[in-house]
Amino acid sequence: MKTHAQTSACGMSRRGFLLAGIQGLAAAALLHSRWIEPFWPEISHRKVLLPKPFSRPLTIAHISDLHAFGSMPLWYLENSFQLLAQETPDLICLTGDYISSTLPSAQEAARYSRLLRILSDAAPCAACLGNHDGGQWASRFGAGDSWEEAAGILSDANIRCLVNETTMYQCRGQQVVVAGTADLWSAPVAFDETNQNLLHTAAPLIMLAHNPDTKDAIANLPWDIMLSGHTHGGQLIYPFSNKTPFSVVRDRRFMAGLHRWNDRWLHVSRGLGTWRGVRINCPPEMTLLSLESCN
Ligand SMILES: [Fe+2]
User: Fold this and answer.
1) Which residues surround ligand 1, an ion (CB under 5 A)?
2) Is residue 12 domain-shared with residue 99, that is, in the same domain?
3) Residues 249, 87: Cα–Cα separation, whole Å
4) What's the pTM?
5) pLDDT value at position 179?
6) Are residues 165 and 200 in the same domain?
7) Are residues 181 and 134 in the same domain?
8) What is the reported pLDDT for 2?
9) Distance (Å) from CA 183 to ligand 1 centroid
């Protein structure tokens, strides 16, 4: 006669066996989301056609949301920088959240700058700041209302930090203009007249703005492509749905990837680091954008 709780040769009922299997799967998923996926960055490649003259395609590396101290260990960032440097980009753009609102000691900051030099030794580096790097938003989480600390880490690493500023690079004979905004949640986004004049150029113009929602505030400026982060790609993505429970932007069309917006380009990085150290179905990334002329 059969009973509901059939027992296997090892003495475990079918229900017990199923429960153990489910618990094992849940434990494996937890392990993966906390200790494997957040430390397994993808290097993605994307081609961007711009209506600007190029003597040859320009390779721009885009990384964002490093979140050192509090979320991501420096060994992980160091390994990632070395991976990216091997790709020999022409220019490296960083779009904010270098720290996780926890201010590092002077010693930790100096070590972080030394590691960031792996990037600036590989190519010229330009950066904007994020909401975790100091300012109105970060001051509520212990990072202080000044972004001096984060900007100091960057400048010690020979990375140009742009806060409502514009600069120009010659990358192997190709001129490119890079501008960076203040973080949308931290300070006013406003270029003064001098910096705004520099934006009117025949060269390709790359805008760095941590939060992709910044696009609306600078819609009147003539940038060709805006590079952003902030969303972490959603960080937790439900399987088969591409949906996330997190909403850190108003315009949820642009959570990750390369998009057209108002006849120009918007690239949103899923970020290299994470907030609180967990990722599900949304691996960290570093992107190589190949900028080419569409003419
Ligand atoms: Fe972030």
Assistant:
1) 65, 97
2) no
3) 31
4) 0.91
5) 98
6) yes
7) yes
8) 45
9) 11
